Amino acid sequence: MRIRLEPHWTKRLLELPESGMGYQRVDIRLVDGRELKDVVVFNAEEIEVPDEFARAQIKDVRLHAA
Amino acid sequence: MLRLTDSNTRALLAQPESGMGYQVVEATLSDYKTKRGVAYNAELLLFEEEPRRIMLSTPYLKLLESARSATGEIKSLRVISRATVTTLSAREPSGAAVQKKAGPATDGPKEKTKADEVFKRFSAYPNDRRVASDRSLLAGTYATTEEDAKNVKTGTDAVARYALPDPAPASNVFTIRPNKDTDIQRGIVEPAFGQPGGGVEVIFTNGTQPKTVTGPTKIPDA
Question: Is the ipTM of this complex over 0.90?
Answer without folding.
Answer: no
